[in-house]
Amino acid sequence: MIHKPEPETPIEEIHRIRREISERFGGNIAAIAEDAARRQLASGRPVWQAKPASQSKSMGNECPAGGADRG
Predict the structure, then answer these.
(1) Element containing residue 13 per DSSP (H, E)
(2) Which end of the chain is more exposed for a tag (fewer CB within 10 A), N or C?
C-alpha cells in the first residue's frame, strides 16, 4: 500500500513560507520589509491607510474610553 504524505495544514503552510522568506533574506527583517514594500508598490493595488490619531480625535465629541460624557 502506498502512503501519501499528509497534506500540510494552512498553519503549517504559513510557517513553511515564513521560514523560506526568512532564509532568503538571512533573517534580516528590515530587508524583508523593504522587499514587501517594493512588491506592494509595484503591484499598483490600492492600500488602505489609517488617518493619524490626532485627526480622528478632533473630529467630534467622543467620550473618553470606558465612560460617559460627564459635562
Answers:
(1) helix 10-24
(2) N
Tens of pLDDT, residue by residue over 12-71, are 999 999 999 999 999 999 999 999 999 999 999 998 889 998 865 555 555 556 555 555
CB-side exposure of 19: number of CA atoms within 13 Å? Answer: 6
Answer yes or no: are the C-beta atoms of 57 and 65 closer than 8 Å.
no
The ranges assigned to domains in the chain are 7-42
Grid coordinates of 60: 467630534
For residue 47, the one-letter residue type is: V
How far CA 55 is from CA of 13, 44, 50, 51, 58, in Å, comes to: 40, 27, 10, 7, 5
